[in-house]
Design goal:
1 helix, 72 residues, mainly beta, three-stranded antiparallel sheet, flat, single chain
């Protein structure tokens, strides 16, 4: 994501910067670490956008059990 200040004090434009490969694209819409690094309030859950070029495309899966995060 790209954070750009505007002419209005305290207002920003947040643009997604998609990563594109043969499967489709991935972009972060909101990322706590990137918002904090820009000095913005980051009390937000991460939001990501995925698009697939082909039906049936499987992207990386994640799971969480008892507070432990792991890749599937």
């Amino acid at each position: 994501m790209k954070i750009e200040a505007t002419k209005i004090p305290g207002a920003y434009v947040i643009r997604r910067e998609p990563f594109i490969d043969e499967r489709g694209s991935f972009a972060r819409m909101f990322c706590k670490n990137e918002l904090e690094a820009a000095g913005l309030c980051a009390d937000i859950a991460p939001v990501n956008l995925f698009t697939n070029f082909k039906k049936g495309t499987l992207r990386r899966l994640h799971s969480q059990k008892s507070g432990v995060f792991s890749d599937v």
